[in-house]
Amino acid sequence: MDTGDMSNYQSNGEFDLVEFTAAKNITYYSCCPEPYPDITFHHQAQAATNVLRVQSHPALRAYQWHSPFGVLRAERVRGEGDSGASRRCSP
């Protein structure tokens, strides 16, 4: 296998190109005397680890900032949870 042409390759901050090869294959069929060439490209990309560590989704950051213990029930926020004073029947 030969190395693929990477003269116009532009690096990507999200992925690293690990391997890029090309192989020329020539196939002959019984119906036709002329050859049928094709080129098979193989590329292997790997996620850039520094991108995965640094970036986080904005919604997750907002959730972590909002409550480190999760979402509180509405009764607890209004103060209705433990006293029973304003407890309502629920289905």
Automatic annotation (TrEMBL):
InterPro entries listed in its UniProt record: Neur_chan_lig-bd_sf (IPR036734)
GO function terms (MF aspect): extracellular ligand-gated monoatomic ion channel activity
Superkingdom per UniProt: Eukaryota
Gene3D superfamilies per the UniProt record, alphabetical: Neurotransmitter-gated ion-channel ligand-binding domain (2.70.170.10)
One cellular component (GO) term of this entry: membrane
Protein name (Swiss-Prot/TrEMBL): Uncharacterized protein
Organism: Scylla paramamosain
